[in-house]
Automatic annotation (TrEMBL):
GO MF annotations, alphabetized: nitronate monooxygenase activity
UniProt lineage: Eukaryota, Fungi, Dikarya, Basidiomycota, Ustilaginomycotina
PANTHER family (UniProt xref): 2-NITROPROPANE DIOXYGENASE (PTHR32332), 2-NITROPROPANE DIOXYGENASE FAMILY, PUTATIVE (AFU_ORTHOLOGUE AFUA_2G09850)-RELATED (PTHR32332:SF31)
Keywords carried by this UniProt record: Flavoprotein, FMN, Oxidoreductase
Name of the protein this chain belongs to: Nitronate monooxygenase domain-containing protein
SUPFAM superfamilies: Inosine monophosphate dehydrogenase (IMPDH)
The keyword Oxidoreductase is annotated on this UniProt entry: yes
The organism's place on the tree of life at top rank: Eukaryota
InterPro entries, sorted: Aldolase_TIM, NMO
Amino acid sequence: MVPRITTPLTRLLPSTTTPVVLGAMANASGGDLAGAVSRAGGFGFIGAGYYSPETLRDEVDKAYRQIGVVNRESLAQKRERANLGIGILTWRLTELDQGSKPPLEGQDPMPSASSSKAMALVDEMLRARPKAVWLSFGDEQELVGWTRRIRRRDRELNPDLDVKGDQSLLLFVMVGREAELACAVEGCGADVLIAQGNEAGGHGHSESPPLSAIIAAVQEKLPSLKPTNAAGTMPPLLGAGGLSGGRSLASLLAQGCAGGVYGTRFLLTPEAQYSDLQKELLARSKSDDTKRTRAFDDARGTLGWPAGVDGRGINNLTVADYEKDMEMEKEQSDRAKEGVARRMERYKQAASEADVERLVIWSGTGVGGMDRIMPAAEVVDEITRDAVEAIQQAHSYVVA
């Protein structure tokens, strides 16, 4: 029998039996993976950053099947939310809204779903009745403004749910620097905080410190802030970045966190949206095979990310080409546009050929601690068991 770990996070999410959270990874953590993690006692997020409303609906339906929800109507009849989360990129919402950021002052003339692609995505997300929404990557106006719109729209679409009780919509907000903390706690009213260190795979701020350092900085500053969430309580803190297994979770709990957010580890599962070739490459990779770079966003043309944001992935030929071209373009600025076009065409060809030597494979530094592809439920169980074992071992060092 898998042990149960109880923390402030699991008390906030009664459906969970372990503080293991699946990160909201765009184009990687779809409905099958999110649902499998939630069904196993963790908490899964669908990474909807680049989804259309139609794609999001399909992925939510996959998650429903995993967690035993018949459909949206059955949730409405029970006046319940689904035990899963959905992650949104705030800068992407602004982009979908033709670059218009929600106002912070005065009345917000919230656009309708018929006139705003961003609100169409938000509406689809909220109609799914998720237990939580994950917001990240945006400036203060975007994070606070979109938070207000999401909470307001949730009240309109789900009037039967108690927004201050057990069926409230929980807001997870990720921070990568101490400077972002006040916005998350006081501006957004975060119910859960995620501190992401620079070891994390995928996107993050290039100036983020290591995970242990940002956890310490956040814990030092939190007592000086005034939470504005519905409960009026300080949000529990989760750690993200470079996690590999149960010892990582035990370490976070020992540092005062309420749980851990795992990304790369869940990419090595049948339910993840990565290809088999990508998963097999991750299983062979070592921690020093990863690198922070803008090479992949450059090659894919996904350059709308906020200033200072780059991504950590497996170092490959796409990175090598990018770095070589950057050196050349310093000397020959007129070659820049030509280089971008060439790199994008090369990446497009690699995508059509499933060439893993060039495709983006996001990965955190913890990849060296994982070498098996296994079902998501088994990953959740293994992390939990190993965390309990590590905690018990550490406790044996204490002499009364």
